[in-house]
Design brief:
This protein has about 230 residues and is mainly β. Helix content is about 5%, strand content about 30%. The longest helix has 11 residues, at about 1-10. The chain is elongated, with a radius of gyration of 61 Å.
Length: about 230
């Protein structure tokens, strides 16, 4: 009985068949389709670096210096002690004339003119044949003394009558040396020595301060010998 039942069981209650083996790599009915692989993003290009704006070069122009103020010719006449104190027949006294030109005018012919008013002779004065006062100029090249013109008069000689002179450039400084001597028989007294710088090229009708751009004077006295 048991043997028959066992056989019957094998026939009726046989074990279910095994599922067929699937070939390797073959999808099964229950297998889900493979998920797509995530896309690999290409590395982003680095953002372009902004070039800082370079400011345009600033051109700095130096301010032009203001023009120099206009200056004109000046003259000074000096002597030790401040005056020409002469003795009749005594030694000469030296004095210096300094011309300082400005930046306005250059002179082709600038002349120094000397003038003095006449002294009044005293009763016992015995003027000689020569002038009572003698003016001399020292040559800057040789150092020798030579005669210079001295006008003895009370009136003013017209500037148009003067001729000659030496050039004087702009801003030039020139120094001239002179000496004055009283002769033995001349008069005594006091009268200033007047010195004028005259532009002998100035045309007729030029204002006086342009024809005679500089002037000065020096006190003078002539006395008898003790």
């Amino acid at each position: 009985m048991l043997l028959g039942a066992a056989l019957t069981g094998c026939a009726d209650g046989a074990a279910p068949p095994r599922p067929a083996a699937t070939a390797p790599g073959s999808p099964t009915a229950s297998s889900a389709p493979p998920s797509p692989s995530p896309a690999v993003s290409a590395p982003a290009a680095p953002a372009a670096l902004a070039t800082p704006a370079v400011p345009a070069a600033t051109v700095t122009t130096a301010a032009a210096p203001p023009p120099a103020p206009a200056t004109r010719l000046s003259m000074s006449v000096t002597t030790p002690g401040g005056r020409l104190d002469l003795v009749r027949g005594g030694p000469a006294r030296e004095f210096t004339v300094i011309l300082r030109n400005g930046n306005s005018d250059a002179y082709r012919h600038l002349l120094l003119a000397f003038q003095m008013e006449a002294l009044v002779p005293e009763p016992d004065d015995t003027p000689g044949p020569e002038a009572s006062l003698l003016l001399e100029r020292r040559d800057p090249g040789t150092g020798r003394w030579g005669p210079a013109e001295l006008r003895i008069a009370g009136d003013l000689r017209p500037y148009s009558f003067y001729e000659g002179g030496s050039p004087l450039a702009r801003d030039e400084v020139r120094t001239e040396h002179f000496r004055l001597r009283a002769t033995p028989g001349g008069p005594t007294g006091s009268s200033p020595l007047m010195v004028r710088a005259i532009d002998t090229d100035a045309p007729e009708g030029t204002p006086e301060d342009r024809r005679r751009p500089a002037a000065s004077s020096l006190p003078h006295r002539t006395r008898r010998a003790s």
